[in-house]
Write a structure and sequence with these properties.
With 65 residues, this protein is mostly beta strands. 12% of the residues lie in helices and 34% in strands. A 5-stranded mixed beta sheet has the order 2-1-5-3-4, with no helix packed on it.
Amino acid sequence: MKLTVNGEQREVAGTTVLALLEELGLNPGATVVERNAQIVDRTSYRETALADGDVLELVRIVGGG
C-alpha cells in the first residue's frame, strides 16, 4: 500500500496504524499520529485501518531535561 508519511511517499505492508508503527520501529505509546488531517486516538491505533493514498504525520514524543 502506498502512503505519504511525514511528506515522504512510502510503500508499506502494515494495514493499521499500529502495524505501521511497528513496521517503522516506532513506540506506539510515544508517537502521535495524524491521518488525513485527523488526530488518531492512541487507544484506536490497533483498529484504525489505513487505505492506499492516506497521508500521515507521525510525531515522536521525546523526554529530556
